[in-house]
Design a protein that fits this description.
This protein is of the alpha+beta class. The protein is built from 8 helices and 22 strands. Strands 11, 14, 15, 16, 17, 18, 19, 20, 21 and 22 form a 10-stranded antiparallel sheet that branches. Strands 1-2-3-4-5 form a 5-stranded antiparallel sheet, covered by helices on one side. The protein has a 5-stranded antiparallel sheet with strand order 6-7-8-9-10, sandwiched between helices. The protein starts with a helix and ends in a 13-residue tail after the last helix.
Length: 493
């Protein structure tokens, strides 16, 4: 027995001290509760009475309220000038009114993203300047400043954002304040998208912010006569690059730009775009209408937004101009070799040419002729760097002599019609940079230039009234928009 007690002596001592600690803590808590309750009652009866001895209305408090006050500690008194503390639960607060990422002022109002500009009631005059250099800016600012302090403020504001290459890039506006004419507003041209608007407060401080540059929406019409080259004829006219690319991409489904177009053929284009006051293009322009009057056919296309939200180009009957496979998957290239028998430029003997060649500069982008999946991407003998894409209904398109593939293009990659898949090169058995393009249906090679495929989509019957109304509006715009005077072309040699 002594041996057992000796072994467990330490545990018994520990339990004894724990018991003493528990008893002491219990006495301390009960004493603290009693003392705090007594102090609270004394404060409620003795200390509060002298402060409100004239206006305090004594009232007998029920025992239930006293018990409740002992736990919640709410002051219970009635006064005409003062009100009791309110009892609320902070768990019921609606914290969704203010995001947790917002900075909050002491008043509880979120910090504004930008300072409000001072209001200006009237202007007495506006001075517009075309500043070409910093030296010119210093002279203009010094002339329009009242003191050195304002001069330094204006210089620090303007020289950071002003664009010296643009006319009318700085404007000072004046207003009458307390009978004297003072500088109240400064407008600085930064770029085609933004301007800096600054105003002078009544204390002389300058508050500025970026504002969207005012633009004008224009609808422009061009009528072009083709001479020798469609690409050169289009680039001789001041048409945005995006409109030219859209025009060529849309007509590449049904027009052979090398064989179908001749000198004297007519092209008509109607597009809308946003321009700044300096006639600089802002944003992406939209091709509204395009037409080609060729020797053997007239083709029109209209921009239309379907009910499902998709935008495409359709002929007057409601059929999409897009086909399942493009005839020319490259923009601005020259057809250098046709489909059929020819004398091979390297081998020196006649050989079947099972595709068409488009001569273009090295690095010219190549598009996918249709929706499909890449079935081969790599080197393929005399083709050099070679791509093959499989499409629906047994069709496949093949691209040879590439300089390189676009990043991410590999076997198994799904591509959409018009996606860039590679770039023109001179790899393999080739005499110069060009694209060799083939179309294959099952096991039969087809001439891409004579390929005729149905449209990818048509406007639904229930949508045709809206489509015809869109055509009427476009023709009305076409009739009321004057032809631009910049369509005088120089015949290329």
């Amino acid at each position: 027995m002594f041996i057992i007690l000796k072994k467990n002596l330490n545990i018994l001592i520990l339990l004894f001290f724990l018991h003493l600690s528990y008893l002491g803590l219990e006495n301390f808590i009960s004493f603290d509760a009693q003392s705090s309750q007594q102090i609270y009652k004394e404060n409620l009866t003795e200390k509060s009475q002298p402060q409100f001895d004239k206006k305090l209305v004594k009232k007998k408090v029920p025992e239930t309220v006293l018990k409740h006050s002992e736990t919640t500690r709410i002051a219970n008194f009635k006064n005409n000038d003062f009100f009791s503390d309110s009892n609320f639960n902070d768990l019921n607060l609606d914290l969704t009114l203010v995001p947790i990422t917002e900075r909050i002022l002491f008043s509880g109002i979120p910090v504004p993203k930008s300072k409000p500009l001072p209001e200006i009631n009237n202007y007495t005059k506006h001075l517009t300047h075309s500043v070409t250099s910093e030296e010119d800016l210093k002279k203009i600012v010094e002339k329009n400043s009242t003191d050195m302090y304002q001069y330094e403020k204006l210089m620090g504001l303007i020289k950071i954002d002003i664009d010296y290459a643009v006319k009318d890039n700085l404007k000072f506006s004046y207003s009458k304040i307390n009978g004297t004419e003072s500088l109240t507003e400064i407008s600085i041209f930064k770029n085609n998208l933004y301007e800096v608007n600054a105003r002078v407060s009544e204390h002389g401080e300058i508050i500025s912010q970026y504002v969207t540059a005012p633009t004008e929406r224009k609808i422009l019409r061009h009528k072009i006569t083709v001479y020798h080259s469609l690409s050169k004829s289009l680039h001789n006219v001041k048409i945005p690059k995006e409109i030219i690319e859209s025009f060529i991409n849309q007509f590449s489904f049904s027009v052979d730009f090398q064989r179908d177009i001749n000198n004297g053929d007519q092209i008509e284009i109607l597009f809308e775009a946003n321009y700044t006051k300096n006639n600089n293009l802002v944003g992406t322009p939209k091709l509204l209408y395009a037409a080609m009057s060729l020797n053997n056919q007239d083709i029109e296309l209209f921009r239309y937004k379907l009910q499902n939200g998709k935008v495409d180009y359709f002929d007057p009957s409601g059929k999409s101009i897009r086909k399942s496979i493009m005839r020319t998957p490259i923009s601005g290239a020259r057809l250098s070799s046709r489909f059929g028998m020819r004398k091979h430029p390297i081998l020196g003997y006649s050989k079947m040419h099972r595709g068409v060649d488009f001569a273009a500069k090295r690095g010219t982008p190549i598009m996918s002729a249709g929706d499909g999946r890449v079935s081969f991407a790599g080197r393929n003998g005399s083709y050099g760097k070679f791509l093959e894409i499989r499409h629906l209904n047994g069709f496949s398109t093949r691209y040879g002599h590439l300089h390189k593939f676009k990043k991410g293009i590999k076997k198994g990659k799904i591509v959409k019609q018009g996606d860039i898949i590679g770039f023109v090169g001179n790899t393999g058995r080739s005499t110069g940079p060009h694209l060799h393009y083939e179309v294959k249906h099952k096991r039969r090679i087809i001439n891409p230039m004579t390929l005729k495929l149905p449209s990818r989509m048509e406007v639904e019957k229930n949508e045709m009234p809206n489509f015809y109304a869109n055509i009427s509006l476009t023709r009305e715009r076409l009739a009321t928009t004057p032809i631009s005077k910049s369509d005088r072309l120089v015949i290329s040699n």
